[in-house]
Amino acid sequence: MKRVFLIALMGLGCRSETTTTQGTVVGNPGDGAMRSGDGVDFEPEIARTTVSTMNWKGCGGTEREISIGSEIDLLGDNQFTVPVGNWCAVVVNFNDALFIEGPFRIDDSEDDEEVWLQMELATEMTVFVSEEDGFDASEEHFVIEFGEPDWYDPVALLDDELLSEAQLEALREGVFIVNDEHSQYDEMVDRLENTSALFVDGDGNGQISETERDEGPVAQGDSDADDANDDAEPVEKSEAPTSDDGCGSSGANALLILPFGWFWRRRLRRDGFLNENRLD
Fold this sequence. Notes:
Blueprint: H1 2-13, E1 30-36, E2 46-58, E3 63-73, E4 80-82, E5 85-94, E6 98-104, E7 115-121, E8 125-129, E9 135-137, E10 141-146, H2 154-158, H3 165-172, E11 175-178, H4 185-195, E12 197-200, H5 210-214, E13 219-221, H6 225-231, H7 250-270, H8 273-277
Parallel strand pairs: 1-10, 7-11
Antiparallel strand pairs: 1-4, 2-3, 2-5, 2-6, 5-8, 5-9, 6-7, 8-13, 10-12, 12-13
Helix pairs in contact: 1-7
Protein backbone atom coordinates (compact mmCIF):
# COMPACT_ATOMS: atom_id res chain seq x y z
CA MET A 1 0.00 0.00 0.00
CA LYS A 2 2.87 2.40 0.70
CA ARG A 3 4.19 1.88 -2.82
CA VAL A 4 0.73 2.52 -4.32
CA PHE A 5 0.45 5.72 -2.33
CA LEU A 6 3.92 6.82 -3.45
CA ILE A 7 3.12 6.21 -7.13
CA ALA A 8 -0.15 8.11 -6.80
CA LEU A 9 1.77 11.06 -5.40
CA MET A 10 4.16 10.91 -8.34
CA GLY A 11 1.22 11.18 -10.75
CA LEU A 12 -0.32 14.09 -8.88
CA GLY A 13 2.98 15.90 -8.63
CA CYS A 14 3.78 15.68 -12.32
CA ARG A 15 3.54 19.12 -13.90
CA SER A 16 4.92 20.62 -17.08
CA GLU A 17 5.12 23.93 -18.86
CA THR A 18 3.10 23.44 -22.05
CA THR A 19 3.71 25.26 -25.31
CA THR A 20 0.43 25.93 -27.08
CA THR A 21 0.04 25.70 -30.80
CA GLN A 22 -0.85 28.88 -32.68
CA GLY A 23 -4.56 29.51 -32.52
CA THR A 24 -5.18 27.44 -29.39
CA VAL A 25 -7.26 29.16 -26.73
CA VAL A 26 -5.72 29.16 -23.26
CA GLY A 27 -6.68 31.49 -20.48
CA ASN A 28 -9.20 34.25 -20.97
CA PRO A 29 -10.11 35.31 -24.51
CA GLY A 30 -10.51 38.93 -25.50
CA ASP A 31 -13.53 40.59 -27.04
CA GLY A 32 -14.41 42.81 -29.94
CA ALA A 33 -17.13 44.98 -31.42
CA MET A 34 -18.29 45.64 -34.98
CA ARG A 35 -18.88 49.11 -36.40
CA SER A 36 -19.79 50.73 -39.72
CA GLY A 37 -17.74 53.55 -41.20
CA ASP A 38 -19.68 56.77 -41.91
CA GLY A 39 -20.17 58.18 -45.39
CA VAL A 40 -19.17 61.58 -46.73
CA ASP A 41 -21.17 64.11 -44.67
CA PHE A 42 -23.43 61.24 -43.71
CA GLU A 43 -24.04 59.52 -40.39
CA PRO A 44 -26.45 56.60 -40.75
CA GLU A 45 -29.38 56.14 -38.43
CA ILE A 46 -29.44 52.43 -39.18
CA ALA A 47 -26.48 50.15 -39.87
CA ARG A 48 -26.91 46.43 -39.41
CA THR A 49 -25.99 43.03 -40.78
CA THR A 50 -26.18 39.37 -39.74
CA VAL A 51 -22.99 37.41 -39.09
CA SER A 52 -23.04 33.62 -38.96
CA THR A 53 -19.45 32.78 -37.97
CA MET A 54 -15.95 34.18 -37.71
CA ASN A 55 -12.93 32.09 -38.65
CA TRP A 56 -9.64 33.04 -37.01
CA LYS A 57 -6.78 31.59 -39.05
CA GLY A 58 -3.48 31.08 -37.27
CA CYS A 59 -0.16 31.81 -38.94
CA GLY A 60 0.87 28.21 -38.25
CA GLY A 61 -2.14 26.68 -40.05
CA THR A 62 -4.54 26.27 -37.14
CA GLU A 63 -8.05 27.68 -37.17
CA ARG A 64 -10.69 28.70 -34.66
CA GLU A 65 -14.35 29.15 -35.57
CA ILE A 66 -16.48 31.49 -33.45
CA SER A 67 -20.24 31.12 -33.88
CA ILE A 68 -22.32 34.30 -33.78
CA GLY A 69 -25.52 33.64 -35.75
CA SER A 70 -27.30 36.88 -34.92
CA GLU A 71 -28.12 40.30 -36.29
CA ILE A 72 -25.50 42.91 -35.42
CA ASP A 73 -26.41 46.52 -34.69
CA LEU A 74 -23.33 48.28 -36.03
CA LEU A 75 -24.30 51.52 -34.28
CA GLY A 76 -25.21 50.03 -30.91
CA ASP A 77 -23.84 47.56 -28.39
CA ASN A 78 -22.49 44.31 -29.80
CA GLN A 79 -19.71 41.97 -28.83
CA PHE A 80 -17.88 38.92 -30.15
CA THR A 81 -15.21 36.68 -28.66
CA VAL A 82 -11.59 37.03 -29.74
CA PRO A 83 -9.70 33.75 -29.19
CA VAL A 84 -6.18 33.81 -27.82
CA GLY A 85 -3.49 33.15 -30.41
CA ASN A 86 -1.32 34.50 -33.20
CA TRP A 87 -3.52 35.23 -36.22
CA CYS A 88 -2.73 35.98 -39.84
CA ALA A 89 -6.31 36.29 -41.15
CA VAL A 90 -9.88 36.72 -39.93
CA VAL A 91 -12.88 35.75 -42.08
CA VAL A 92 -16.29 37.20 -41.26
CA ASN A 93 -19.10 35.13 -42.83
CA PHE A 94 -22.44 36.86 -43.39
CA ASN A 95 -25.98 35.53 -43.42
CA ASP A 96 -27.42 38.78 -44.76
CA ALA A 97 -26.48 41.97 -46.55
CA LEU A 98 -25.11 45.13 -44.95
CA PHE A 99 -27.99 47.59 -44.55
CA ILE A 100 -27.30 51.31 -44.14
CA GLU A 101 -30.07 53.90 -43.89
CA GLY A 102 -30.40 57.56 -43.01
CA PRO A 103 -31.36 61.02 -44.28
CA PHE A 104 -29.17 63.34 -46.35
CA ARG A 105 -29.51 66.56 -48.34
CA ILE A 106 -28.39 67.16 -51.89
CA ASP A 107 -26.72 70.45 -50.87
CA ASP A 108 -26.25 72.53 -47.73
CA SER A 109 -29.47 74.48 -48.12
CA GLU A 110 -31.75 74.05 -45.12
CA ASP A 111 -34.75 74.41 -47.43
CA ASP A 112 -33.91 71.29 -49.40
CA GLU A 113 -36.07 68.27 -48.79
CA GLU A 114 -34.30 65.39 -47.17
CA VAL A 115 -33.72 62.19 -49.11
CA TRP A 116 -33.69 58.89 -47.25
CA LEU A 117 -30.85 56.57 -48.26
CA GLN A 118 -31.51 52.84 -48.28
CA MET A 119 -28.30 50.99 -49.15
CA GLU A 120 -28.11 47.21 -49.32
CA LEU A 121 -24.75 45.61 -50.08
CA ALA A 122 -24.52 41.82 -50.17
CA THR A 123 -21.23 40.04 -49.59
CA GLU A 124 -20.71 36.47 -48.44
CA MET A 125 -17.58 37.23 -46.47
CA THR A 126 -15.04 39.86 -45.59
CA VAL A 127 -11.45 38.65 -45.28
CA PHE A 128 -9.06 40.60 -43.06
CA VAL A 129 -5.39 39.88 -43.76
CA SER A 130 -2.53 40.78 -41.42
CA GLU A 131 1.16 41.28 -42.06
CA GLU A 132 3.48 38.30 -42.51
CA ASP A 133 4.02 37.75 -38.77
CA GLY A 134 0.34 38.19 -37.93
CA PHE A 135 -0.92 39.78 -34.74
CA ASP A 136 -1.24 38.45 -31.21
CA ALA A 137 -4.48 38.34 -29.26
CA SER A 138 -4.46 37.72 -25.53
CA GLU A 139 -7.35 39.34 -23.65
CA GLU A 140 -7.13 42.50 -25.79
CA HIS A 141 -10.13 44.40 -27.16
CA PHE A 142 -10.63 44.81 -30.90
CA VAL A 143 -12.97 46.66 -33.25
CA ILE A 144 -13.93 45.60 -36.76
CA GLU A 145 -14.92 48.55 -38.92
CA PHE A 146 -16.85 47.77 -42.10
CA GLY A 147 -15.76 50.42 -44.55
CA GLU A 148 -13.40 53.23 -43.62
CA PRO A 149 -14.68 56.76 -42.85
CA ASP A 150 -16.08 58.45 -46.00
CA TRP A 151 -16.03 55.18 -47.95
CA TYR A 152 -19.26 56.16 -49.72
CA ASP A 153 -20.90 59.42 -50.77
CA PRO A 154 -24.71 59.40 -51.08
CA VAL A 155 -24.72 62.60 -53.17
CA ALA A 156 -22.15 61.18 -55.62
CA LEU A 157 -24.17 57.98 -55.93
CA LEU A 158 -27.28 60.06 -56.58
CA ASP A 159 -25.56 61.87 -59.46
CA ASP A 160 -25.31 58.60 -61.35
CA GLU A 161 -27.30 58.89 -64.60
CA LEU A 162 -27.87 55.16 -64.86
CA LEU A 163 -30.50 54.76 -62.15
CA SER A 164 -33.14 52.14 -62.87
CA GLU A 165 -36.78 53.05 -63.31
CA ALA A 166 -37.58 51.58 -59.91
CA GLN A 167 -34.88 53.74 -58.31
CA LEU A 168 -36.18 56.87 -60.04
CA GLU A 169 -39.72 56.09 -58.90
CA ALA A 170 -38.57 55.65 -55.30
CA LEU A 171 -36.50 58.82 -55.53
CA ARG A 172 -39.61 60.82 -56.44
CA GLU A 173 -41.01 59.56 -53.12
CA GLY A 174 -37.93 60.79 -51.28
CA VAL A 175 -36.18 57.41 -50.98
CA PHE A 176 -32.83 56.70 -52.67
CA ILE A 177 -32.25 52.95 -53.05
CA VAL A 178 -28.75 51.63 -53.63
CA ASN A 179 -28.86 47.88 -54.35
CA ASP A 180 -27.69 45.47 -57.04
CA GLU A 181 -29.58 47.50 -59.66
CA HIS A 182 -27.32 50.50 -59.15
CA SER A 183 -24.57 50.88 -61.76
CA GLN A 184 -21.90 51.33 -59.06
CA TYR A 185 -23.07 48.43 -56.92
CA ASP A 186 -20.11 46.12 -57.64
CA GLU A 187 -17.71 48.99 -56.98
CA MET A 188 -19.42 49.67 -53.65
CA VAL A 189 -19.16 46.02 -52.57
CA ASP A 190 -15.50 45.95 -53.58
CA ARG A 191 -14.89 49.14 -51.62
CA LEU A 192 -16.62 47.66 -48.59
CA GLU A 193 -14.47 44.54 -48.67
CA ASN A 194 -11.18 46.38 -49.19
CA THR A 195 -11.56 49.37 -46.86
CA SER A 196 -12.79 47.39 -43.85
CA ALA A 197 -10.20 46.89 -41.13
CA LEU A 198 -9.51 45.36 -37.72
CA PHE A 199 -8.15 47.68 -35.00
CA VAL A 200 -6.92 47.22 -31.46
CA ASP A 201 -9.37 48.91 -29.09
CA GLY A 202 -6.96 50.12 -26.43
CA ASP A 203 -9.52 51.61 -24.06
CA GLY A 204 -12.06 48.81 -24.62
CA ASN A 205 -14.99 51.14 -25.30
CA GLY A 206 -16.03 49.46 -28.55
CA GLN A 207 -15.19 52.55 -30.63
CA ILE A 208 -12.15 53.60 -32.67
CA SER A 209 -10.52 56.76 -31.33
CA GLU A 210 -8.28 58.95 -33.46
CA THR A 211 -5.25 57.68 -31.55
CA GLU A 212 -6.23 54.06 -32.16
CA ARG A 213 -6.85 54.82 -35.83
CA ASP A 214 -3.48 56.54 -36.16
CA GLU A 215 -1.77 53.41 -34.86
CA GLY A 216 -3.15 51.61 -37.89
CA PRO A 217 -5.11 48.36 -38.28
CA VAL A 218 -3.70 44.97 -37.34
CA ALA A 219 -5.52 43.40 -40.32
CA GLN A 220 -6.89 44.96 -43.50
CA GLY A 221 -9.79 43.93 -45.73
CA ASP A 222 -8.63 42.18 -48.87
CA SER A 223 -11.15 41.01 -51.47
CA ASP A 224 -8.37 39.23 -53.38
CA ALA A 225 -8.04 36.88 -50.41
CA ASP A 226 -11.56 35.51 -51.04
CA ASP A 227 -10.42 33.19 -53.83
CA ALA A 228 -7.37 32.11 -51.88
CA ASN A 229 -9.62 31.29 -48.93
CA ASP A 230 -11.96 29.20 -51.12
CA ASP A 231 -9.10 27.28 -52.75
CA ALA A 232 -7.14 26.64 -49.57
CA GLU A 233 -6.84 23.14 -48.21
CA PRO A 234 -9.05 22.58 -45.14
CA VAL A 235 -7.12 22.99 -41.92
CA GLU A 236 -7.63 21.19 -38.67
CA LYS A 237 -9.35 23.00 -35.87
CA SER A 238 -7.11 23.84 -32.93
CA GLU A 239 -6.82 21.12 -30.33
CA ALA A 240 -5.80 20.92 -26.72
CA PRO A 241 -2.35 22.25 -25.81
CA THR A 242 0.51 19.83 -26.40
CA SER A 243 4.04 19.61 -25.03
CA ASP A 244 7.28 17.82 -25.80
CA ASP A 245 7.87 17.02 -22.16
CA GLY A 246 6.03 16.70 -18.86
CA CYS A 247 2.80 14.79 -18.16
CA GLY A 248 1.32 15.43 -21.55
CA SER A 249 4.07 13.68 -23.51
CA SER A 250 4.14 10.00 -24.43
CA GLY A 251 7.63 9.63 -22.95
CA ALA A 252 6.49 10.86 -19.55
CA ASN A 253 3.46 8.56 -19.61
CA ALA A 254 5.70 5.58 -20.30
CA LEU A 255 7.97 6.48 -17.38
CA LEU A 256 4.94 6.79 -15.12
CA ILE A 257 3.76 3.27 -16.05
CA LEU A 258 7.12 1.64 -15.21
CA PRO A 259 6.71 1.79 -11.39
CA PHE A 260 3.28 0.15 -11.66
CA GLY A 261 4.75 -2.73 -13.72
CA TRP A 262 7.57 -3.17 -11.24
CA PHE A 263 5.18 -3.20 -8.29
CA TRP A 264 2.81 -5.81 -9.74
CA ARG A 265 5.69 -8.06 -10.85
CA ARG A 266 7.07 -8.06 -7.31
CA ARG A 267 3.63 -8.89 -5.95
CA LEU A 268 3.04 -11.75 -8.39
CA ARG A 269 6.50 -13.19 -7.66
CA ARG A 270 5.81 -12.93 -3.95
CA ASP A 271 2.59 -14.92 -4.35
CA GLY A 272 4.42 -17.59 -6.34
CA PHE A 273 2.53 -17.02 -9.56
CA LEU A 274 5.52 -16.30 -11.75
CA ASN A 275 7.59 -19.20 -10.37
CA GLU A 276 4.79 -21.75 -10.82
CA ASN A 277 3.77 -20.60 -14.31
CA ARG A 278 7.17 -19.80 -15.87
CA LEU A 279 7.63 -21.34 -19.29
CA ASP A 280 10.75 -23.47 -19.72
